[in-house]
Design a protein that fits this description.
Strand content: 15-25%
Low-confidence stretches: none
Strand order of the largest sheet: 4-5-8-6-7
Mean pLDDT: 96
Structural class: alpha+beta
Helix content: 10-25%
Number of helices: 9
């Protein structure tokens, strides 16, 4: 049985308190949302934060609002909520489809939108137990110097498997990142790096607080993925598409995302 390493648990009630704790603890701390990715990684010693900062009780991170100008989804909104809320099925079909296809209902009820967007990259060599990885001399992503997927590569080849990311990029989403020094808004399409080790633009002292959209009115969207098993599996290939269609059926704008 793989066990969690020892850690300190903090449970702030406000976003301001959470970012202060995160800044005070430094890189040795990690925000904890649903924990469906972070806790298994900790058991495999892929991530070993000394302090976990729970976001479950942070006010405002669970709110969802649809408005004529700007719509917002709190980062702690669970994938289960998105999959069962008819507002997403009608207004943001791609996001609803993506959330509905993540893992199982039990995991979707814990996993959060923000956590899925920050999902750690994966590969067959990295996603193994500590003892297994040690036996092959670790890898470039964690504790080693060689990418075992492509030994000659100067960068890590682990890939993103976040279902909601391509759907949200197709829908034109932005994200709000908050730290003790302030906040910034970033287009989700610019959030990801083409490197399995340094894979997102979030700084260690930042918390992803919410996803922001322009009005979804007039947009139609869809999300599909290829996976090895018919259910409960990460995507091997995924595609999201969105189009804004006028009253007379003219396509005024369109986006296709192939991560």
């Amino acid at each position: 049985m793989m066990r969690l390493p020892l850690f300190v648990f903090r449970a702030p009630f406000t976003l301001e308190e959470a970012v202060c704790v995160l800044a005070g603890e430094g890189p040795a701390a990690a925000p904890l949302a649903g924990g469906t990715d972070l806790l298994p990684n900790m058991k495999r010693r892929q991530q070993v934060p000394r302090t976990l900062i729970s976001l479950r009780r942070v006010a405002g991170l669970h709110e969802v609002s649809f408005a004529p100008s700007v719509s917002r989804i709190g980062a702690s909104t669970t994938l289960g909520q998105i999959a069962t809320d008819p507002r997403f099925r009608i207004n943001m079909t791609a996001l609803w489809q993506a959330a509905s296809q993540v893992a199982t209902p039990q995991i979707r009820n814990m996993a959060t939108l923000g956590g899925n967007l920050c999902l750690d990259t994966r590969c067959n060599y990295y996603d193994q137990s500590y003892e297994w990885r040690k036996s092959i001399d670790f890898c470039l992503k964690k504790d080693g110097t060689t990418c075992w997927v492509a030994p000659g590569s100067p960068k890590c080849m682990a890939v993103s498997s976040a279902d909601t990311a391509p759907a949200l990029i197709a829908l034109g989403a932005s994200i709000r990142l908050v730290s003790r020094s302030g906040e910034r808004e970033l287009r989700l399409a610019n959030f990801y790096n083409n490197d399995g080790r340094d894979y997102i633009q979030k700084r260690p002292d930042e918390i992803l607080a919410e996803v922001v959209f322009d009005s979804p009115h007039g947009w139609k969207s869809t999300y599909w993925k290829l996976r090895r098993r018919g259910s409960f599996d990460f995507p091997v290939l995924s595609v999201a598409a969105a189009a804004r269609i006028s009253r007379n059926g003219t396509v005024e704008d369109a986006r296709i995302v192939l991560p």
